[in-house]
Structures are given as structure tokens and as C-alpha cells.
Amino acid sequence: MPNPLPSLLAGVVFGLALAAPPGPMNAVIAEESVSNGWLAGARTGLGAMTADAVFFVGSLFGVVAFVERFPTVRAAMVGVGGALMCYFAYGAARDATGGVETVPSGDGAARQAATGFRKAFVLALTNPYQILFWLTIGVGLLEPGELDVLAYTPYVGADLAGLLVVRTGSPALIVGFFLGIALWITGFPAALRAAQRRVAAFAPVVAGASALVLAGFGVVFLVDAVRTLL
User: Fold this and answer.
1) DSSP code per residue over 22-90
2) Domain residues of the chain, as ranges?
3) 99-138 burial, b for 16+ CB within 10 Å, e for fewer?
4) Given pLDDT bands bounded at 50, 70 and 90, which one contains residue 121?
5) Residue 147: pLDDT above 70?
6) How would you classify residue 13: left for phi > 0, otherwise alpha for psi between -120 and 50, otherwise beta?
7) Where are the transmembrane segments (predicted)?
């Protein structure tokens, strides 16, 4: 019986490699973490990971492929995602200019954590990058074959190609993939909160950077949606 540990560890590396690079989802997680605390940041990341789980199940049943076959449907989803990113960018900019200093506690913290989860879940469901991933790479994770894990790392994949090639078709790879994402969405908010406790102006800077990232991706997605619909 094959040892599942290498596939599990490779999945963890794969999940971390995809979750860690800068992007709209990490911008939302960062803004929630410094504005509303570690729980809110972790729950926000959980919302994004839950969307990945939905995409995974949907790809197995052909739902994600259905979206790709109809450009109008995909464009509408991308447009909604772009509009949401611009709206969340406004909220992050407001936090940045308001000078976030404290985070809510008690019932307030629980409500903010739930809000972050819903925000990230809806945003991830309309994120074309995640849709494309599950259409191409994700759906093949349980099919026998090979996967160049680090080649799909955003921004630096070409430089890392060939460093870690694993066999697909093992459930351990999927388990490790989601475990890697889970490690990121808990560790990233914790690191931000630790930095926030040491640097007084850290929260407004992170909120401002998150606003810029969300606004940039939001405009790109809106333009893409309009071009497709027209």
C-alpha cells in the first residue's frame, strides 16, 4: 500500500503556495485581521476556503465547467466580483483614514467574524482566478497523473517549475491541499496581529494597502466583464 505521507505533505505545500501570494482574498483577510482581530481574519480566510470546497465539489459534478461554457454567466459573476471588490476597497480605505486602533470584543467580535466569513465566501465565489484554477488544475487532483506543484505558484511559478512533482489521484493530496490553506488562513492573521501590537501605525497601513489591492483587482474584473458582455 503506497505511503500517503508524501502526497499529504505535497498537498500542504501546494495549498500554502497558492494561498500565500498577494491578491484580493489576502487583502480582505489582512484588512479584517487588523480591523477586527485574529478571529475575524481567520473566519474570513475560512470563507474563502469554503468557496474552494464548493468549487471542488462543483468541479466533480461539472458545475464549474458549465459556468465556463457560458461566457455571459462567467462575465456576470466576474462583474459582481469586481463590484464587490470596489465596495470592500471603499470600506478598507475608510478604516485606513479612520485610524484603526482597537478591535471589537465579545459579541461585537463574533458579529465581525461572521461578517468577514460571508464577505470572503461571496467574493471567492465570483473570483475568476479561483474558477479558472478549479477548471484546469483543481479538477485533476483526484485523477491519476502528475502535478508540478510549485509551477502553479502565482507570480513565480515559472522559476519554481520542476522542483516538486507529485503523483495525483490520492485523497491525501486533497486533504493536504486544504490543510495548507488552513495553515495560511490561521497563521497569516496571527502574524498580522503580532506585528500590529508592535507597530502603532500598522493597522492603517495594512488597511490602505488592502484598499489599493481590492480596488485594482475590482477595476480589472469590471473591465473584463464589460468586454465579455459587449
Assistant:
1) -SHHHHHHHHHHHHH-HHHHHHHHHHHHHHHHHHHHHHHTTHHHHHHH-HHHHHHHHHHHHHHHHHHHH
2) 4-229
3) ebeebbeeeebeebbebbbebbbebbbbbbebbebbbebb
4) very high
5) yes
6) alpha
7) 46-67, 120-142, 172-192, 199-223
